[in-house]
Design goal:
This protein is α+β, with helices and mostly antiparallel strands. Helix content is about 20%, strand content about 30%. A 6-stranded mixed β-sheet has the order 2-5-4-3-1-6. The chain is globular and about 45 Å long. The structure holds a DNA duplex.
Length: about 160
DNA sequence: GCCAACGTTGGC
DNA sequence: GCCAACGTTGGC
């Protein structure tokens, strides 16, 4: 009898501008299609590496202070981003067709808020997080992998148990 | 609002 | 395939 272990749950960080879509919005909606990502590296991560059940730090960018606000879960794996076909959408891509969609996205479900925002300044001040993508100078990638160590450490900084995330 | 860093486009 | 110009991101 062959038995396969399920693939380990992976961890990610996804940026969002809270004026457009915040962790509060995600909490209200409970789940959301993560549309509008128009960067090939981020798309490839969503398409090739993100799996249902993976956990995501929801990061508020372009706000003061920026930081990790909460936790989401991948609830649907990559599918064509509907906004690329919507002429009314700011994310409309005239070069994309339903037969050959250029952009993909996942759906993200709400898991929880963190007890408080973990600011970018705090992340930068923690030497053990110096390899996190989000703290790198000029880092713009809006979908990023997070190591298990970094995941645990950030949770520890706000007193959230790994089992509660 | 500024501007450095980055990704994409397009001329050659 | 190079690279200058351009548009965007996102911290500050």
């Amino acid at each position: 009898m062959t038995q396969s272990t399920p693939p380990a749950r992976r961890h990610w960080l996804m940026k969002t501008e809270p004026t457009a879509f915040s962790i509060d919005d995600l909490a209200r909606a409970q789940r959301s299609t993560w549309d509008g990502v128009r960067n090939y590296q981020a798309r490839n991560l969503m398409r090739d590496a993100m799996r249902a059940g993976d956990r995501v730090f929801i990061y508020h960018s372009n706000t003061d202070p920026a930081g990790i606000a909460g936790i989401g879960e991948v609830v649907a794996e990559a599918h064509a981003d509907p906004s690329q076909f919507d002429k009314m959408s700011p994310y409309f891509d005239p070069k994309s067709t339903p037969g050959a969609p250029r952009w993909q996205c996942v759906d993200v479900g709400y898991v929880r808020h963190l007890p408080r925002l973990v600011t970018l300044a705090e992340l930068k001040a923690e030497p053990r997080l110096c390899d996190m993508v989000v703290v790198q100078r000029g880092s713009r990638l809006s979908v990023q992998p997070v190591t298990p160590e970094a995941w645990r450490l950030v949770l520890a900084m706000v007193g959230v148990g790994v089992e509660d995330a």
